[in-house]
Amino acid sequence: INSACQRFGVDPSLVHAIVKVESDFNPFAISRKGAMGLMQLMPQTANTMNVQNTFSPDENVEGGVKYLRYLLDRYEGNISLALAAYNAGEKKIKKWGQKGLRLSMKIIIC
Prior knowledge:
Elements: H1 2-8, H2 12-23, H3 43-48, H4 57-74, H5 79-88, H6 90-109
């Protein structure tokens, strides 16, 4: 986790928290929706992030951190939106649109 986080400039504490919540550190975890591995990558996301074996902890974390970096950049460093997109998917965040952005900003300001 630490080396992937260093490569992509992501806080390792954040990634540890994601792994704990997503898979409870089980590299063979599979969700009801089909997400796999430590960071619970969906097959399409794993493919986009060039993850060949989603059950390989190194590959899964590398792909998950790379995807999280992409989301952090896409949402201009807004961790709340990046995590929401990581969990629910980018399409849902887009669907929530500015309403979601305003809510997220409200949470950050408070």
